[in-house]
Amino acid sequence: MSLYVNGELADFKEVLNELSRTYFVESVDAYVGELTDIGERSFAFLDDGVTPRKYIVVYVKLRNGKEVALLEVERAGRSVSTLIITSLNGSNIKLYIEPLLKYIIFSSGSWLKEGLVKWEKRLAIYKVKHTSNFKKTVINKISDI
């Protein structure tokens, strides 16, 4: 997986590297983008107001046939949880990534439960906070899917 990132997103890459080595994962594909390509509000930029905030979307194909997406947004001093997303109705997860990114931009960097509820019939969405157990929590949650 060739993914050029630095800073805190590089730490997230370590999670992906470990995830790709687990027995229940078939493949891991990651893409980096800038929130300014999705929407132009203050959260789309870092605190300097000029530098676009980056995000990583990761598609994980599990050996059980299911697909999971991880959505990581550059925090840069903010506490933004990572989302783990899987389809409940067999729909393509990729269709939901841009609307979710628009949602976090317009909610100023928060994955508010009230805002995520509109997807709950089609998606299972898990929020994972960045704690000392982050890597273990992400891997355990995905292994349960």
Automatic annotation (TrEMBL):
InterPro entries: TnsE_C
One Pfam family named in its UniProt record: TnsE_C
Domain named TnsE C-terminal: residues: 11-139
UniProt name for this protein: TnsE C-terminal domain-containing protein
